[in-house]
TrEMBL record:
Belongs to the binding-protein-dependent transport system permease family. GO terms for cellular component: plasma membrane. This is ABC transporter permease. It comes from Micromonospora sonchi. Residues 112-309 form the ABC transmembrane type-1 domain. It holds the Pfam family BPD_transp_1. Gene3D superfamilies: MetI-like.
Length: 322
């Protein structure tokens, strides 16, 4: 576990160092990265997947043909679970019914919004807390002198302990302590990504602290707090933004895993892909498609975020460029 966490730290620190090195060339990092992304097929595919997903999540629930909680199949006698009858797709119900007689297509569309909400909020939680810790540590290490190095060492040892724990185990532990709910899933998944954001921003800020503009500002008598907040921090955010894109993919998968383990929203009437996947387990023998639909949706969405995030990382990393 120590070897794995050490490799993870080296990878994060390397990304931060390379991003800072590119800024020193005087090249607009984001303009150059965007130019490379437009020529990257993986980035285009990922962007298309994410565009469709976001549009479905935002606009789709307005146009669903049936209510996501309407048990019409039970009411009309079409779904008879006791007799092992859960009808599949038809002209009126494109993905069929679930075990409670609800329209699966409508629940998938509405569930996309909940899945997006969980992923985005969890990522924002990890980004906010991680950026706070990493920003303080990076500013202290780069500009704080002896006292700053002590603060940096203390904060990074705490972060290293969190990095040494498997992410899913840490998320399950937090969710078990807080109790099952959608808010719990967001907090648990968000806290898992805190160490990555913290160490990444800290490494980027330390690399930026050695830049010429920091030396010039220090020579002119600019306060170190102003240098850190107005100059070093804004120029250190590029690798953090890339990591946020990758974290969205893992956040969706980990949220689905927590829901599958019964630590997500206990109200199955609220459609969410992870909850739908968990609810489908008892009915795999009768209708396995109930689990296949949300599973495929989760995989494709995570793939879109991963493709775009990896393409952005490649565009920002000189050693990975072609």
């Amino acid at each position: 576990m120590t070897i794995i966490s050490g490799k993870k730290r080296e990878k994060i620190d390397r990304l931060a160092e390379l991003a800072a090195r590119e800024e020193e060339r005087g090249v607009s990092l984001w303009q150059d990265a965007f130019r490379r992304l437009r020529r990257n097929p993986a980035a285009i595919v990922g962007a298309v997947i994410l565009t469709i997903f976001v549009l479905v999540a935002i606009v789709g629930p307005v146009f669903v043909p049936y209510g996501p909680t309407d048990t019409m199949g039970i009411r009309e006698g079409v779904v008879r679970v006791g007799q092992g009858l859960i009808p599949g797709h038809s002209a009126e119900h494109w993905l069929g019914y679930d075990h409670q007689g609800r329209d699966v297509f409508s629940r998938m569309i509405v569930g996309a919004r909940q899945t997006l909400l969980v992923g985005v909020v969890a990522t924002l939680i990890g980004l906010a807390v991680g950026a706070l810790i990493g920003g303080v540590a990076g500013a202290a290490a780069g500009l704080g002198g002896r006292w700053g190095r002590w603060v940096d060492t203390t904060l990074m040892r705490i972060i290293d302990m969190l990095l040494a724990m498997p992410s899913l185990l840490l998320a399950v532990s937090i969710a078990a302590l807080l109790g099952p709910s959608l808010t719990t899933v967001m907090i648990a998944v968000g806290m898992v990504s805190v160490p990555v954001f913290a160490r990444l921003l800290r490494g980027s800020m330390i690399a930026q602290s050695n830049s010429d503009y920091v030396l010039a500002a220090t020579s002119l008598g600019v306060r170190k707090s102003k240098i850190a907040l107005a100059h070093v921090l804004p120029n250190s955010l590029a690798p953090v933004i890339v990591q946020a894109t990758l974290t969205l993919a893992t956040a969706i998968i980990e949220a689905a895993a927590l829901s599958y383990l019964g630590l997500g929203n206990p109200d199955s009437a609220v459609p969410e892909w992870g909850v739908m996947l968990a609810d489908a387990q008892p009915w795999l023998g009768i209708r396995p498609a109930l689990a296949i639909y949300p599973a495929v949706a989760i995989i494709i969405t995570a793939l879109g975020f991963t493709l775009l995030g990896e393409a952005m990382r490649e565009a920002l990393d000189p050693k990975l460029r072609k």
